[in-house]
């Protein structure tokens, strides 16, 4: 998060570092919140634990799930066993990406000599993006997320650093579409017009042989690539009854 929450909510996944191990649990630091949380021995692993030191080590970093929050006392309990393996992997990946993106943001402040205006810039950016990773992704997608920002020098420094230091991940999705029209007089022109409209949405169109075409979209994430396919589908839908079509994932 660009503007971080004071405390996590119940059910949130958090990155923790084990600091002190006791007989009946361990005290951990929440890396994203700079506060302490308690890990009960019953929440470390399934089954009976005879020796807690066999399951956790001081200095160990892991992903946990928040199971109790007392905002008044700033008390938090966490669980290792309630965080599933898949959730842990995703959370750790997102955390590392966010830390890297935040580091680039900080370097851009230094490069543009705007460190003193960090709070003001953060406020402007947070009004547009929720996370540093989202900001970086939108820069790659050339959406110009900082258009009109007050500190133009910072914007240019950030954009330069992003394209210089990060190799964009490319995710590709592919669909096959079948298009037909009963309009004898202008059917071919309609199809060509629709194909052109889809290409303008960032989708590559490959002719497979009438009436089949392959639609391919590339982006920095699969959801963004799917957004392009949905935009192309909306183009076809705009022709209502003039063009009949069916679309399916090429892997199907």
What features would you describe in this structure?
There is one protein chain. With 252 residues, the protein is α+β, with helices and mostly antiparallel strands. Helices cover 35% and strands 27% of the residues. The protein contains six helices and nine strands; from the N terminus they run βββββααααβαββαβ. The strands form two sheets. The chain has a five-stranded antiparallel beta sheet with strand order 3-2-1-4-5, covered by helices on one side. Strands 7-8-6-9 form a four-stranded antiparallel beta sheet. The longest helix has 27 residues, at 85-111. It is extended.
Shape label = extended
DSSP, total strands: 9
SS-based class = alpha+beta
Number of domains: 3
Bin the helical content: 25-40%
Instruction: Please tell me how large the radius of gyration is.
Output: 25 Å
Percent of sequence in beta strands: 25-35%
Q: Helix and strand string, N-terminal first?
A: EEEEEHHHHEHEEHE
Tally the helices: what do you get?
6
Write out the strand line-up for the largest beta sheet, numbering strands in chain order.
3-2-1-4-5
Major sheet characteristics: 5 strands, antiparallel
Mean pLDDT: 92
- What is the distance, rounded to the nearest whole angstrom, between the alpha carbons of the first and last residues? 37 Å
Report low-confidence residues grouped into runs of 5 or more. Answer: none
């Amino acid at each position: 998060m660009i503007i971080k929450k004071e405390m996590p909510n119940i059910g949130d996944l958090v990155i923790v570092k084990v600091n002190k191990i006791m007989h009946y649990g361990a005290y951990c630091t929440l890396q994203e919140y700079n506060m302490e949380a308690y890990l009960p021995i019953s929440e470390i692993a399934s089954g009976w634990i005879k020796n807690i030191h066999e399951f956790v080590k001081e200095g160990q970093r892991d992903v946990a799930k928040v199971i109790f929050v007392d905002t008044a006392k700033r008390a938090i309990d966490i669980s290792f066993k309630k965080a599933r393996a898949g959730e842990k992997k995703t959370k750790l990946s997102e955390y590392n990406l966010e830390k890297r993106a935040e580091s680039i943001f900080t370097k851009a402040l230094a490069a543009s000599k705007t460190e003193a205006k960090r709070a003001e810039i953060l406020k402007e950016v947070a009004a547009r993006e929720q996370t540093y990773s989202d900001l970086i992704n939108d820069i790659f997608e050339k959406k110009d997320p900082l258009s009109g920002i007050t500190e133009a020098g910072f914007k240019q420094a950030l954009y330069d650093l992003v394209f210089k230091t990060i190799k964009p991940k490319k995710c590709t999705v592919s669909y096959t579409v079948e298009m037909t029209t009963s309009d004898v007089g202008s059917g071919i022109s309609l199809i060509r017009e629709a194909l052109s409209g889809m290409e303008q949405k960032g989708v590559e169109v490959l002719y497979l042989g009438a009436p089949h075409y392959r639609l391919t979209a590339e982006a920095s994430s699969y959801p963004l690539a799917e957004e392009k396919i949905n935009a192309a589908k909306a183009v076809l839908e705009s022709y209502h009854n003039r063009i009949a079509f069916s679309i399916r994932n090429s892997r199907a």
